[in-house]
Design brief:
422 residues, alpha/beta, Rossmann fold, three-stranded antiparallel sheet, 18 strands, 24% strand
């Protein structure tokens, strides 16, 4: 074994009698106590850290909780930043509302900063009633503020932190709607001429840095809702624009969890195309995770009058784990029970409490084995990568989803091929 103790050098005590260097035992407890007194809040106790890493608040979806991967009580991690991004109508605000309702139902308090000035309180109370939470309880524990600039949002959050009122969840809706303070005039008009490249991204970074210490001390979960933009390709005219979330790169580094939501199918009341549209199917992908394995994918259903309906997720998990089988098209077996149609299977699984508990033991293992097949059926089993576009194309009976390979040829290549042809 190598002797890693040093017997000389700076910081080593000298024996006054012999003049020889002595070995310091390495007991750092006194030193740590001194540092903690001089610089409070900097030392990390491992036992406390391990406890904090298990603290989270449910997203409102069993599937989403499952792919986040924190076990039985999974969800948005406390004392960390989470980003939810996606295109319009992909379920971002609905997930935020449902998580807030779950938090309040469990005795917590929620602060919601509506930068878009479009929050629908009627829908919030509708979803809360569907979850068995009264409007009065929501009014007392859901604090809704409209803000315009980074500075306004920061002042509102700081006011709660300094008041002593413990906030369990903070939602920022949404990142692109946050205006840098120097751009907003006294008459609430935006001075575009005073803008500069990267100003919004730098303000966002400062905003996140300023919240970091407070959320660590209060174990507050901060969820940032973000939008998508198209980044035009620089390689040539024939290249497709690429999708990217707004706000620059700072948010990608500061967040511990990034969730990509994508709507891919409309749900009808009878399961057929001619039925009444009652909701959507959403694919969720964990793009980044510092708390568990990333790149996990799941599918869940959002019903417009109830929120997330986990009974649809039960079907996917049961089929993936062999709890339910599909021997012939349109027919399903669960033990000795034979059911006709996926809707009948969903109702059966949802009403059988013992079977539901058995299925939920597999909630954290659903990953891509079920989801990729659901989102990309039949010929769409190719690897999901950045060179593939997911598009909806018209058919005789409606629409279907297809994977289309992006064209990579640049303008220069195309022109040279043209000259060769001439």
């Amino acid at each position: 074994m190598h002797d890693i103790t040093r017997k000389g050098g700076k910081g080593k005590d000298k024996d006054k009698k012999s003049g020889n260097n002595t070995i310091i035992t390495g007991d750092a407890s006194k030193l740590i106590d001194d540092i903690r007194k001089k610089i409070p809040g900097t030392y990390v106790d491992f036992q406390e850290s391990l406890k904090k890493e298990k603290l989270c608040i449910s997203t409102g979806s069993l599937t989403l909780d499952g792919i986040i991967g924190l076990g039985d009580n999974s969800g948005f991690p406390r004392a960390r930043f989470t980003e939810i991004f996606g295109w319009e109508s992909s379920g971002k605000t609905t997930v935020a509302m449902l998580s807030a309702i779950k938090c309040i139902k469990g005795g917590g308090k929620v602060l919601y900063l509506d930068y878009e000035h479009s929050f629908n309180t009627t829908r919030l109370f509708q979803l809360a009633a569907a979850q068995g939470v009264s409007q009065k309880l929501m009014e007392n524990n859901f604090f809704l503020f409209t803000a315009s600039t980074f500075g306004e949002g920061k002042k509102i959050i700081d006011a709660f932190f300094t008041s002593g009122i413990i906030i369990d969840e903070i939602f920022v809706d949404s990142i692109p709607a946050m205006i840098p303070d120097r751009l907003l005039n006294d008459d609430f008009t935006v001075d575009i001429d005073n803008n500069e490249i990267g100003l919004h991204a730098r303000n966002l970074q400062a905003f996140l840095v300023s919240l970091n210490k407070n959320i660590l001390e209060t174990d507050t979960a901060v969820i940032l809702l973000n939008q998508m933009r198209l980044k035009f390709a620089t390689g040539g005219f024939f290249q497709k624009p690429q999708e990217q979330s707004s706000g620059g790169n700072a948010i990608k580094f500061y967040t511990s969890l990034r969730i990509d939501l994508k709507k891919f199918e409309v749900v009808t009341d009878n399961g057929k195309e001619d039925g009444e549209k009652i909701g959507i199917k959403v694919r969720a992908r964990i793009k980044k995770s510092k708390i568990s394995a990333p790149e996990r994918v799941g599918v869940f259903v959002i019903l417009w009058d109830k929120g997330v309906d986990d009974s649809y997720s039960l079907v996917e998990i049961a089929l993936a784990k062999g709890i339910a089988t599909n021997p012939t098209q349109g027919y399903y077996n669960v033990g000795d029970e034979k059911l006709h149609g996926k809707e009948a299977l969903r109702v059966y699984l949802n009403e059988n409490e013992e079977l539901k508990k058995k299925i939920l033991t597999h909630i954290d293992t659903i990953v891509t084995e079920v989801s990729e097949e659901t989102v990309f059926p039949d010929e769409m089993q190719a690897d999901d990568d950045d060179d593939v576009d997911i598009v909806t194309v018209p058919t005789e009976t409606g629409t279907k989803i297809k994977r289309v390979k992006r064209v990579k040829e640049s303008v220069a290549t195309t022109e040279s091929e043209t000259k060769e042809g001439e």
